[in-house]
């Protein structure tokens, strides 16, 4: 009786919050409706097309390079997606990521243990996020403006600290470089970290009361307050979390490059926001999934890598990436409109 | 403009159908509007009234069927086009821009078509003032977001009145108004009708339909049932056509003398908020339903929101079941078992783009969570289904977005959200706004049952008959203070209005 009920409940009207349908037919129908399915299909098509177009594409090395490319950025995408769901946005992710590298790198050069230096750098980035959260929730400024200012300030700090030149960290101990360069079996550590972060936050976001409040806040801040949710606290925390994850990403980059790059991550915010939005996050808050955002990241990265393999000029690459973003958002707009 | 037969319909709709996915909102609806008539559209929540009107206004596209305006088949594709054709629409849900002034909102449709690129704010406010003056006193320079919901509703009406329309659609305009304001609106409607303007009037209140309308068309489950001359029918007949069965007594029985208890559930002493209300003291006894009456702007909602710590810096004592409460945030209130049902379900009551289930669970997520704060989706769905069944909610499945429900059913979701925490005291601000007759009676019965089981119930309503019908005792608020209390035989509309308005000359004069 109960089982029957649940299957009939999964009509095509179901939305992303619908996780009530069980039954095989319901599950399949639900899967087909999800944007994640669409993204996976597009990625598969690209894969098949590219494996014909370039013999190098489907090689282990290329796969590995691609995965390495999106894995670290993917950690930032996770933070951005959660922030977008809560109704915020962060333009400073690129500079804060670079700043993490610079802080940890400089501390290390001054004799601090690399692990402690990294922890301090991540803490500093988290503090920057908390600072932005303060300006947004207590002073009442807009995320866009606050993070724009921080983007410039953090970049300035990077250049100030390094004189604008990359700092080589040749003496980093191998066990530290292992996080960025090592492999467990055939799987790079970077990818292991990435998968863990994604799984953990995907679960938290979908299933915990704490993160459900992020959805409530982004969906209708006033209604959330009228449900007893401390919305300012929620926004403060999502802002802080996003910067903290930038810090983590920065450290992994440092371990991978074996250097601190003060100019790293310029324009990263656009990529990250685009990935989240392609994956279904809305700039007005309230919607988005980690899985979708990661698929968005993978899609963008597969496209970049394909274009590079096909020897398409970098300028065209930007144009194509922008067009993909525009089409994804347009299609989404129409699908939503049809649903009413 | 030569000789038009008055009986010649200005608007004629035939066999209109509209589906949303599997939900058939309209199944071949016919409707006919004559010149200069006030035509009521009645039907239960979800019957399809708003959907039909949204199609006439070009917001929704019909699946099939025909619309004729002045006898000419026409395909209305957008609200802008409807406006050009002379169709004005006051929506069920208020759709104003909160951050700009009343005047700018009223002339929004006009400002972007005026020839001069510059806005003349002075003139705008003056003209807005003239229109608003007919409806009640609202400052045209005020920001819409700062007004109470009833005044926003008046602004919405004023906006439609500025358009030169031949057909005016009013979708439950009085749901947010008091008697007095409603009466003003009805006068205006009658004047417009006398000028030859045709009005479609949607309401769940039979009294309004029978006092002001010429004809009434009834829809049920997306189907056309009948059209009747109001003069030749009775409210009972209309309700029967709406629900397909007889609805007997409207209000549940009140507390009898022996049921009355001296046990005090909630005791409030000296509740004060600097500018908005002061020294409000009352107590709520076990079993009773307490009403709060007052004119719009008297401070009823403010008092209650202040008590729950939803807004304002409030001082005063609140004692629940003999225990003095220390409330700092609304979350403390919820934890203590005191909840507030907002009067503005769209603005701050519901998460429209989220599912029914996650709306219902929002007040206390821990209830549907296992240890460690992990949400149990099955429990969450069960909770929504159980409460939905109790409130007779009409929906497809609990994963459906709340925005896809009809207005009345959205209200039921908002009520389900309150009931989800098994509250000790519920403050309900306009609990039956936009709810149909049958469902309204159900909500009243549920409130009475809750009261019987010891839950404290306080109802704010602008509909005096509702307060009088449901409450055992009514407190009257005037200008932020309690002006008096009525019970038993003394509970009459006249008495309440007297207490609510004495000493308030401005209101009396209007
Ligand atoms: N965008 C939508 N998506 C899905 N279903 C919808 C949508 N809009 C309306 N419906 C459904 O269509 C039906 C008719 O809704 P409508 O809003 O017209 O009812 P109504 O008669 O105006 O009710 P009320 O008196 O409660 O305002 C309802 O079952 C509702 O759930
Ligand atoms: Mg409606």
Automatic annotation (TrEMBL), chain B:
Matching SUPFAM superfamilies: P-loop containing nucleoside triphosphate hydrolases
Cellular location(s): Cell membrane
UniProt keywords, alphabetically: ATP-binding, Cell membrane, Membrane, Nucleotide-binding, Repeat, Sugar transport, Translocase, Transport
Membrane topology category: Peripheral membrane protein
Chain ranges of the ABC transporter domain: 11-246, 259-504
GO MF terms, alphabetically ordered: ATP binding; ATP hydrolysis activity
Annotated GO CC locations: plasma membrane
InterPro entries associated with the record: AAA+_ATPase (IPR003593), ABC_carbohydrate_import_ATPase (IPR050107), ABC_transporter-like_ATP-bd (IPR003439), ABC_transporter-like_CS (IPR017871), P-loop_NTPase (IPR027417)
PANTHER family membership: CARBOHYDRATE TRANSPORT ATP-BINDING PROTEIN MG119-RELATED (PTHR43790), D-ALLOSE IMPORT ATP-BINDING PROTEIN ALSA-RELATED (PTHR43790:SF3)
Annotated protein name in UniProt: Sugar ABC transporter ATP-binding protein
UniProt source species: Aquibium carbonis
């Amino acid at each position: 009786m109960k089982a029957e009920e649940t299957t009939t409940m999964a009509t095509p009207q179901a939305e992303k919050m619908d996780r009530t349908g069980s039954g095989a037919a319901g599950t399949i129908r639900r899967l087909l409706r999800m944007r994640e399915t669409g993204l996976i299909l597009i990625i598969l098509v690209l894969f098949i097309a590219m494996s014909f177009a370039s013999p190098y594409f489907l090689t282990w090395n290329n796969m590995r390079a691609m995965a390495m490319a999106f894995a670290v950025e993917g950690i930032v995408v996770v933070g951005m997606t959660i922030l977008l769901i809560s109704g915020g946005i962060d333009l400073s992710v690129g500079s804060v990521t670079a700043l993490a590298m610079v802080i940890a790198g400089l501390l290390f050069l001054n004799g601090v243990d690399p692990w402690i230096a990294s922890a301090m750098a991540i803490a500093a980035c988290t503090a920057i996020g908390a600072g932005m959260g303060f300006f947004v929730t207590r002073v009442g400024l807009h995320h866009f403006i606050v993070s724009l200012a921080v983007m410039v300030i953090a970049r300035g700090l990077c250049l100030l600290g390094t004189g604008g030149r990359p700092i080589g960290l040749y003496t980093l101990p191998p066990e530290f470089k292992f996080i960025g360069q090592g492999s467990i079996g055939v799987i790079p550590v970077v990818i292991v970290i990435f998968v863990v972060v994604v799984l953990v936050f995907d679960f938290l976001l979908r299933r915990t009361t704490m993160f459900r409040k992020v959805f409530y806040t982004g969906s209708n801040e006033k209604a959330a307050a009228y449900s007893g949710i401390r919305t300012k606290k929620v926004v403060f925390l999502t802002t802080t979390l996003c910067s903290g994850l930038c810090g983590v990403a920065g450290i992994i980059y440092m371990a991978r490059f074996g250097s601190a790059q003060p100019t790293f991550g310029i324009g990263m915010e656009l990529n990250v926001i685009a990935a989240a939005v392609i994956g279904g996050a809305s700039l007005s808050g309230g919607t988005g999934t980690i899985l979708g955002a990661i698929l968005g990241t993978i899609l963008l990265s597969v496209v970049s890598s394909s274009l590079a393999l096909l020897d398409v000029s970098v300028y065209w690459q930007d144009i194509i990436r922008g067009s993909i973003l525009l089409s994804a958002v347009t299609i989404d707009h129409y699908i939503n409109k049809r649903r009413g | 403009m030569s000789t038009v037969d008055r009986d010649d319909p200005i608007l004629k709709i035939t066999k209109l159908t509209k589906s949303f996915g599997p939900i058939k909102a309209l199944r071949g609806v016919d409707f006919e509007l004559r010149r200069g008539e006030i035509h009521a559209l009645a039907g239960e929540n979800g019957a399809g009234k708003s959907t039909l009107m949204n199609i006439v206004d070009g917001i929704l596209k019909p699946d099939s069927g025909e619309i004729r305006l002045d006898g000419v088949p026409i395909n209305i594709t957008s609200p802008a086009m409807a406006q050009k054709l002379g169709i004005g629409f006051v929506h069920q849900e208020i759709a104003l821009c909160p951050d700009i002034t009343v005047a700018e909102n009223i002339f929004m449709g006009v400002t972007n078509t005026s020839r001069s690129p510059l806005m003349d704010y002075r003139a705008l406010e003056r003209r807005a003032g003239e229109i608003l003056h007919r409806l009640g006193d609202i400052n045209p320079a005020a920001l819409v977001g700062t007004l109470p919901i009833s005044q926003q509703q008046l602004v919405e009406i004023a906006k439609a009145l500025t358009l030169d329309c031949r057909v005016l659609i009013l979708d439950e305009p009085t749901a947010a108004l008091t008697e007095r304001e409603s009466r003003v609106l009805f006068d205006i409607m009658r004047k417009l009708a006398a000028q030859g303007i045709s009005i479609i009037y949607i309401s769940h209140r039979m009294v309004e339909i029978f006092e002001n309308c010429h004809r009434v068309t009834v829809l049920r489950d997306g189907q056309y049932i009948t059209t009747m001359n109001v003069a030749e029918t009775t409210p009972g007949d209309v309700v029967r056509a709406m629900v397909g069965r007889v609805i007997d007594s409207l209000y549940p029985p009140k507390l009898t003398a022996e049921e009355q208890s001296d046990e005090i559930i909630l005791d409030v002493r000296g509740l004060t908020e600097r500018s908005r209300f002061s020294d409000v003291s009352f107590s709520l006894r076990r079993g009773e339903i307490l009403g709060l009456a007052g004119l719009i702007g008297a401070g009823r909602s403010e008092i209650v929101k202040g008590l729950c710590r939803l807004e304002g810096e409030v001082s005063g004592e609140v004692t629940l079941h003999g225990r003095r409460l220390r409330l700092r945030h609304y979350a403390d209130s919820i934890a203590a078992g005191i909840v507030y049902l907002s009067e503005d379900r769209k603005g701050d009551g519901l998460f429209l783009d989220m599912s029914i289930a996650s709306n219902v669970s929002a007040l206390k997520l821990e209830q549907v969570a296992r240890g460690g704060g992990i949400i149990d989706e099955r429990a969450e769905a069960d909770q929504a289904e159980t409460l939905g069944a109790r409130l007779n909610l009409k929906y497809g499945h609990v994963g459906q977005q709340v925005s896809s429900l009809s207005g009345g059913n959205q209200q039921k979701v908002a009520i389900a959200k309150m009931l989800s925490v098994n509250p000790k005291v519920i403050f309900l601000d306009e609990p039956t706004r936009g709810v149909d007759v049958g469902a309204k009676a159900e909500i009243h019965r549920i409130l009475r049952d809750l009261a019987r089981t010891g839950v404290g119930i306080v109802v704010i309503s602008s509909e005096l008959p509702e307060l009088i019908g449901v409450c055992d005792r009514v407190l009257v608020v005037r200008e932020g203070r309690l002006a008096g209390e009525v019970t038993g035989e003394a509970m009459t509309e006249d008495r309440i209005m007297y207490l609510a308005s004495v000493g308030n000359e401005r209101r009396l004069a209007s």
